[in-house]
Amino acid sequence: MRRQILVLVVATAVGCTARPVPYQAKAATEGDVEVCEEGECAEGEVCFEGTCVGTGLVRVSLAWEIVTDLDLHVITPDGIEVYYGNPEAAGLTLDVDDCVGGFCADPDATHVENIFFSSGADRGEYTVFVVNFDGLRASDYRVEVVTLEGDELATWSGSLPAQEGATSPAFAFTW
After folding, report:
1. What are the tens digits of pLDDT across the range 50-66?
2. pTM above 0.90?
3. Is 171 helix (H, G, I), strand (E, B) or coil?
4. How far apart (Å, rounded) are the C-alpha atoms in residues 165 and 123?
5. How far apart (Å, rounded) are the C-alpha atoms in residues 67 and 59?
6. Potential cystine with 137: which of 8, 68, 69, 142 (Cβ 3.0-4.6 Å)?
7. Cα 140 to Cα 36: distance, rounded to the nearest angstrom
């Protein structure tokens, strides 16, 4: 089954964060989830941890298990940061933002964020880090960087404390 990701509208009046939903990013709505399997995603997508994500020339994918709002950040060789607040720039696109404001597509599933590179992305060294946006819970995470051809450029994992804004060490890869 393919995981369908819809836009989540979070009202700040119920105590959620005032974080904006990413432009054209797939953000989750609880209860409307289909999990993908290999070969079920649309052209230009791949199944990563049960979610169809964009591939582009390169994809940087974040996965975690705890219901908390982790955010993937990628900084280009020119210093442009792509994340939920700047979801499309310099040939990079944030296309999946699974958890927003403490709500996830499926609280029992693996949660995902994904940034992919189009043909407009520059070659060079990229920096990647993860932020526990809301700090609701501590969480382990893992990141993988994979080319369109399936070559793994980098993988790493870590843990973030239950602290709003807690940030992972920065990791770099060259493409």
Report:
1. 999 999 999 999 999 99
2. no
3. strand
4. 29
5. 23
6. 68
7. 23
Residue range 111-163, pLDDT digits in tens: 999 999 999 899 999 999 999 999 999 999 999 999 999 999 999 999 999 99
Distance CA 144, CA 130 (A): 12
CB 102 within 8 A of CB 2: no
In a 3-state reduction of DSSP, which class is residue 61?
A: strand
Provide the pairing of β-strand 26-27 with 92-97: parallel
134: left (phi over 0), alpha (psi -120 to 50) or beta: alpha
Is the CB of residue 130 less than 8 Å from the CB of residue 113?
no
Three-state DSSP class for residue 12: helix
